[in-house]
Every structure is written in C-alpha cells, then in structure tokens.
Write a sequence for this structure.
C-alpha cells in the first residue's frame, strides 16, 4: 500500500512539474528572406540560448517589413524583426505594434548596382532603371532619399517585382540598380555573379535614422510581460554571442537552412551588420539599448521627409519601450 501511494505521489509530482517546465512556443517572423543580418537568431537557437530562457523559438522568413508588421498586428506572429520606421507608419495609423528593442541604430539602406557601372552618387541615378519591391522597407523610405538628394521620380525608370525578381533584374541587366541593404542584396548579387557591388548609402545623405528592431503586438506585450522579458534577454545574449563568433553564427543559418546562401558571403554580410548595432552614444551599451534622442530624431526625420503623420512628434516614446530589455550584465 505504501509502495502504491509512493508511486502515485511521484506520478502526481511529475504531472504537476512537467507543464511548468514546458517551453513557451514563440514565432519570430523576419523582415525578409534569410541573410547574414539574421545570424544571431539562428545562433541563439542553435546554442540553446532561447531554450535556457524557456523559449521554443520558431523562425519564419518574411516578405517585407510592412508585411511582417501586419502579421504581428494580427497576432499571426508573436514577434517581428522589421524596419522600425516602417513599423511607425503602421502604428500611427492604429496598428497595435511597438518596438521592444532597436538593434540597428544606423540605416543599412542603399541603392546599389555593379561597381563597374560607376554609379557612385545620387546624380548618377538619373536616366537609369531602379528595381524595387513594393511594401518592403526600402520602398517605404525611398521617397525620403529622393527628397534629401533632390531627385525626382521622373529622373529615372522603375521596375517592380518580388525579392528574387529584383535581384534578377540587376543581374541580367534589366535594371541598373536595386534598393537593398548593404549586407543583404549586395551579397546575393556577388554570390550569383562573383562581381562587386557599389552601394549608395542612404545614411551618407542625411538619413540618420534607426533601422531594424524587434516588434510585438501591444496587447501581446501586456498579456505576456514575463515572456517578452525572457525573449529580449535571450535575443540580447544571442546577439552578443554572435558578435564574438561571426562565422559560427553565419554557419548556424546554413545548418538550419542549407539553401540560405554561402558561408563566405553570409559571414561578410553579418560582419557588415555589426557596426550598425550602436551609435557613438550607445557604443558601451548592450544591444537594443537605443537612446531617446536617436528615436526622436528618427521620428522627426520621418515626419519631415518620409510622410509620417505629424502627430507622431507629439510622443515618440509611443513607438518603443526599453522596459523589457535586460539590465547591464544580466
């Protein structure tokens, strides 16, 4: 009888403990097809950093920051990794989304073409053909670049298509340039052709705004505060670990997705991403610790040049929160 009671107690104890130990399923949707910038998420998952925080992470590729923002707003993804200014456009129109951490604090956006075409400055874009993807982050910010550089849409031709179509247009000579990130599309073109690409960086022409970050649904954040803290803690640690081992971090992408690219260009792309993590003001801080001034300046720039509703200037802090980031050293 005692033996039966003991066995039953053990069984009941196991039943009581197991659910508490079950990891929380979390879906992170990326801004785009996988490329070097995404290495920390895959590395964090591969190294057990998310698991250590009780998170079972599923990483999904995206089809543009605007589309990923919509998915997070609709709660079809728990978190998104998107262009934060693009998220602002949705939030000011009522989308229930907020940034829980800003990783890229300098913009990687550019207009790029083959280096041998000698397109090195905005004036060189006149008379050329530019390939774009509707709804992606570059297309959202492109009008801002045109205003800052004095270009008009009538100065060049545009062709539109999805991500691969845009790449093919440049590779096959149907377009002279495409809108892309310095560490993403440039690497894909080099993979396909072996030829160097020259980017005209938006940041070089006064577009000094934040870029990619983690977003979540505002209701989800309120209902899952502890999970959001654990997710941001794990993601912070994942970025720090990846920074120390760029090639291993890039390899984790291929381990999860063998068709995700080539190790040399994935590594190079990730190494091009790391300097964008911090500004002079945040160089001594952990990843995601954006300053209020950087965010305010980004909002002001978007209002002035990017078509963001002027009411956004009334409360820039409505677009982001640092409340769920780990404290220094934790």
């Amino acid at each position: 009888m005692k033996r039966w009671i003991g066995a039953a107690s053990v069984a009941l104890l196991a039943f009581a403990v197991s659910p508490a130990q079950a990891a929380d399923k979390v879906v992170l949707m990326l801004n785009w097809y996988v490329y070097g910038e995404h290495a920390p998420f895959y590395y964090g998952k591969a190294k057990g950093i998310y698991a250590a925080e009780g998170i079972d992470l599923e990483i999904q590729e995206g089809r543009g920051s605007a589309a990923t923002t919509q998915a997070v707003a609709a709660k079809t993804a728990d978190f998104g990794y998107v262009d934060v200014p693009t998220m602002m456009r949705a939030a000011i129109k009522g989308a229930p989304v907020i940034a829980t951490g800003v990783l890229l604090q300098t913009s990687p956006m550019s207009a790029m073409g083959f280096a041998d075409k000698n397109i090195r400055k905005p004036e060189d874009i006149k008379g050329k053909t530019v390939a774009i993807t509707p709804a992606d982050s570059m297309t959202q910010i492109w009008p801002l670049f045109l205003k800052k550089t004095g270009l008009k849409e009538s100065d060049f031709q545009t062709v539109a298509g999805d991500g691969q179509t845009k790449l093919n247009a440049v590779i096959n000579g149907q377009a002279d340039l495409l809108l892309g990130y310095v560490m993403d599309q440039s690497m894909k073109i080099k993979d396909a052709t072996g030829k160097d690409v020259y980017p005209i960086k938006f940041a070089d022409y006064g577009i000094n705004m934040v870029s990619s970050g983690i977003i979540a649904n505002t209701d989800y954040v309120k209902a899952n505060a502890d999970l959001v803290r654990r997710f941001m803690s794990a993601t912070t640690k994942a970025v720090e670990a990846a920074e120390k081992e760029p090639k291993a971090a890039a390899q984790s992408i291929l381990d999860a997705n063998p068709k995700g690219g080539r190790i040399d260009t994935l590594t190079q792309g990730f190494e091009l991403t790391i300097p964008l993590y911090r500004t002079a003001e945040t160089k001594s801080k952990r990843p995601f610790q954006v300053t209020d001034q950087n965010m305010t300046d980004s909002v002001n720039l978007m209002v002035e040049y990017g078509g963001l509703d002027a009411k956004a200037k009334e409360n820039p802090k409505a677009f982001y929160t640092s409340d769920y980031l780990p404290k220094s050293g934790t």
